[in-house]
Amino acid sequence: MALPTTFHLAADRSSFRLDPRDPTFFQNPYPTYAELHRRAPIAFWDDAGCVAVASYPVVSALLKDRRFVRVAPDRPESERFPPHMPAFASLERHSLLELDGERHARLRSRLTRAFVTRAIESMAPTIEDTARDLAWRLRSQGDGDLVTLFAEPLPVAIIADLIGVPRAAAPDLLQWSHDMVAMYRFGRTEVEELAAERSSREFATFLNDAIAATRSTKRTGLLATLAASSDDPLSSDEVVSLVVLLLNAGHEATVHQIGNGLASLLSDGTQLADAWNDTHDAEAIVEEMLRHDTPLHVFKRTALVDAEIANGVHISRGQEIALLLAAANHDPNVFDDPERFDPQRRQKPHVSFGAGPHFCIGAPLARLELQIAFRVLREEVPSLRLAAPPLFRDSFHFRGVERLPVRCG
To answer: Of the candidates 165, 372, 354, 221, which has an alpha carbon nearest to the alpha carbon of residue 176?
Structure first.
């Protein structure tokens, strides 16, 4: 595969240029990652304005290194949030992704209680029933876009159930999520910012109304649990931010992984039943899918102090680092023949869910949903195959299939 024309590596290999909105790159970033591994596993990315790390050992270590945080404590809010986006800023101010230290630990511990193993496992029958219903509809239609017919409606229905809001709200939840996640797109436009601000305001209003309803009607669900009084009650703003994060991070990632996973599994034109033989179990399939084409490609950290991150590589206090998670998952020094999709490969820990304090809190639910989703599709639509090559969305940070045309017969 050709490298993007916007990719240029400096002669001394200390920096590179790359437009992440170059279609050649976001349709298939892996040739570029392979070149970085070969020639510049740690280098300054001019377009992103920060050091980019592709090396698996360094990425894995930095995810756990307490000298690096999501946001520098002394960075003013005026630099983080556009002034015309107060609603978006209000949600991000309490987001787990934007916090570290004691505040992060406090909010994360409250959310962790909802993700204990027995609570997640109890959702399996609902996930299976929903997936089977969607698979039946897909099979009866015969062909179509797997993203809109299966990959999107399954996770959003499960998230709605988990939160404790009606599934009928799914179209709004999807739109709000898409608009807000676009804020992390490289080179976002003012139109996208205004859409994210509108969706932030509408989403917060919806959730605040739902919180009020849980108190008056004794509804169950995560929203009611988080809003319930305790020795250390959460504010409404904190509850709303936690739930928004669950939808935007958890739902979007699962949608993309279903699409990305099937694109990987069926890339050679085979039917699902042939691509997934009896020697493959659901867990192995999912872990290889997560490694091979993970949805989250970059996770930024900021240095709290001057630090050496590798032999001879120094980072100054306040400097940002882009951890290239998907590139790390394709490090040839760790994964043999990393471009090959191989469910039977000897598993090594991928970094698709991150690591350390910000390890994805929804990982157990995501794994369960993915394992059930692919198993149900294999059982109900064994002849499922690609009808055309997948089209990936213009979104480097959250890589996902925008359309996945399939045939079922």
So the answer is: 165
The SS3 call for residue 118 is helix
Which tens digit of pLDDT belongs to each residue from 104-128? 999 898 888 767 767 788 899 999 9
The C-alpha atoms of residue 76 and residue 394 are separated, in whole angstroms, by 30
Which residues does 318 contact at the CB level (< 8 Å), separation at least 6? Answer: 72, 75, 302, 303
Specify the CATH number of the domain 8-407.
1.10.630.10
pTM for the model stands at 0.93
Token pair of 92 as six digits: 């991000």
Structure token digits, residue 114: 């909802």
Alpha-carbon gap, residue 8 to 17, rounded angstroms:
5
Contact indicator for 256, 399 with CB cutoff of 8 Å: yes
Q: Which amino acid is at 112?
A: T
The structural domains of the chain, with segments of one domain joined by +, span 8-407
